[in-house]
Design brief:
The complex is a heterodimer of chains A (130) and B (315). Chain A has 130 residues and is mainly α. Chain B is built from 13 helices and two strands; from the N terminus they run αααααααααααααββ. The interface between A and B is medium-sized, with 26 and 22 residues.
Chain lengths: 130, 315
Amino acid sequence: MIHEERVILMSRLQAYEDNEGKKDIATANYFRGDYIGLQMLKSVIYITIAAGIFYAGYVFYNLEDFLKSIYETDWIEYAKLLLTRYLVLVIGYALITYMVYAYRYAKAQKNLKKYYGGLKALNAMYHEEA
Amino acid sequence: MTQLLLAKETLKTFVGRNEVYLKPLGKFMLALAAFVMINSYTGYMERINSMSIVLVAALMCSFLPLNFIIICSAAFIILHMYALSMECALVALILFLILALVYFRFAPKDAVVVLLLPMCFYLKIPYVVPVCAGLLATPVSAVAVACGVVVYYMVSYVAGNVSGLSALEAEDMSGRFRYVVDGFLKNKTMVVVMIAFALTVIIVYLIRRLSIDHSWTIAIIAGTIAQMVVLLLGALLMDAEVSTIGIILGSLVSAGIAMAVEFLMFQMDYSRAENVQFEDDEYYYYVKAVPKVILSRPEKTVKKINAQRKKKKSH
């Protein structure tokens, strides 16, 4: 016999699992610290690549000045300046990443709580029948 | 009004039931429009400036995720720029890469704004995008809107300075690169438009979240007016070139479109047909769940009661 209510509940749960749930489940598979840490690591890599591209563009833009002052520049000072700017950028970006992904993790867990509630109800239906 | 609401319900049900076909069709149309616009606006590379290539690319996009249209459009722009000069392509590539790495990693869904904004610029109604972004998205979309403005002005600067670029010596690569970057980054109009659009997104978002009656309509009107004022004032203060009549007319048309968007999307609990498969110990289930038609019958209200006319008796 097909239990109508059960089918409705199962369809709803499956629909969530196929759409929004996919991401939520993948997110909640991690511990909070691991998830946010991984995202921050990714962010640091991305921002480093972006900063590299930007700096390459900047050098190309000022190529003549660079070539002219190549012997006069204090490269150690220059490297220090670049490094400080890079660090400020990375730390700022990592902070934003932390806030965004902490929020997303909390949201995923909230959605999943509802989903697990549904699963529990489904389980209860099966037990009732048996 | 009731007729319109009924039409909206019918449309909603139709979309819900036929989403499987409508989604690829929508993506196909969007991709086609985007590629045709890019080709007609730039179109320096002969090889990709043909309808067959555009159709094939658009067909491909219709089956792939939405963001593929954006990647394809960026590729089209870079290729056209490359045909013009390598430095232009380099500027475009750097810009797109930085946008993708820094912002769209967080909000990949916002990327569609960067596609729509230049398209609306081409149609002379860019003002509609920030208003709709404020209505439908979050205030963070202000960043995406600003990115869209930069992309448009970069492309339009190159398209408008082809002769200037070709006049520069071919060997001076750095000089040509500087010419393109200077040209579009030092554009005052771009800065004014960026600020105005970003502000509009935030204003519209803040007002539509207020718990007052007609908050969406008020948000559209206030957002449009604020946008016009900031654009005109900014242009005046920063001595930027804008067309006053263009802004006013464009804003009015945009407000109209935003109203239509409000009508369609306001309190939209969009439900779609779901095809799901699952199993338990006894059965395999293949369920197609179709949203119910919730067409409420229009209530008839009696507005005027006429006294019943007495039939004249003819004797």
